């Protein structure tokens, strides 16, 4: 296996992916914030997506066989960066990209869960950006581009867990939806998915997430109970009707060990 480049390796999901892939590979990562924490770390490169020369410089320096994109930032800047990245990847014909996307590409249609073969239909700015980026990358790179869509992501000491502790301490309010069905994933589960794609060459679109779903309010309640948190201050969002932000999969090439239930996720993060 050649080198791997994780874009956004300083973020919550990107860091988990980099850590997992480093078990068997030479992995480079990028960061933008917290420069003091990373500038002396081996194989961590500073990346400003607003720099039009950044993709060419990064690829020349790291010579990656795989690029995992888990970037965050201004949507227009990210789109321009990924468009230039795809152009530079054409100079490395053996390179492949795994683009981390989101359930929000379906956020205009909340009447049902969605599968890999469904056409994206987004109404939020975030969902429309991710849809446009997915489409552009697949058009430019074809089968060399894999799309990994994520539902709501949790993990030990993740921002959502910290918000529950803050809510219980009266230091903030947790936004809770009372009629929204979701499925969930963990940072570690996502990292294992990416490792599976890299190691097997599996192609196409992937939906990561639990095989079942749960009302968001009930999920927060159950996690709070497991963490022994009481009186979590919540901002309740009471929708008029039940809606879904759920990613399910019809793929038959996903190992059973990558398939989790909501209960298994709760147990793993609490």
Quick gist of this model?
This protein has helices at 12-21, 35-38, 54-62, 75-89, 125-141, 159-168, 187-200, 216-226, 262-269, and strands at 3-7, 27-31, 44-46, 64-69, 96-102, 145-150, 152-154, 174-177, 180-182, 184-186, 205-207, 214-215, 234-237, 243-245. It has 270 residues and is α/β, with parallel strands linked by helices.
Describe the protein.
The protein is an alpha/beta fold and 270 residues long. It has two domains: 3-151 and 185-207, Rossmann fold (3-Layer(aba) Sandwich), CATH 3.40.50; 153-182 and 211-269. Helices cover 36% and strands 21% of the residues. It has nine helices and 14 strands. The protein has helices at residues 12-21, 35-38, 54-62, 75-89, 125-141, 159-168, 187-200, 216-226, 262-269, and strands at residues 3-7, 27-31, 44-46, 64-69, 96-102, 145-150, 152-154, 174-177, 180-182, 184-186, 205-207, 214-215, 234-237, 243-245. It has a seven-stranded parallel β-sheet, with helices on both faces. Strands 12-9-14 form a three-stranded mixed β-sheet. Strand 4, helix 4 (75-89) and strand 5 form a beta-alpha-beta unit. Helix 1 (12-21) packs across helix 7, helix 3 (54-62) packs across helix 4 (75-89) and helix 4 (75-89) runs parallel beside helix 5 (125-141). It is globular and about 55 Å long. The model has no long low-confidence stretch (mean pLDDT 94).
List the helices and strands and how they pair.
Elements: E1 3-7, H1 12-21, E2 27-31, H2 35-38, E3 44-46, H3 54-62, E4 64-69, H4 75-89, E5 96-102, H5 125-141, E6 145-150, E7 152-154, H6 159-168, E8 174-177, E9 180-182, E10 184-186, H7 187-200, E11 205-207, E12 214-215, H8 216-226, E13 234-237, E14 243-245, H9 262-269
Parallel strand pairs: 1-2, 1-4, 2-3, 4-5, 5-6, 6-11, 7-10, 8-13, 9-14
Antiparallel strand pairs: 9-12
Helix pairs in contact: 1-7, 3-4, 4-5
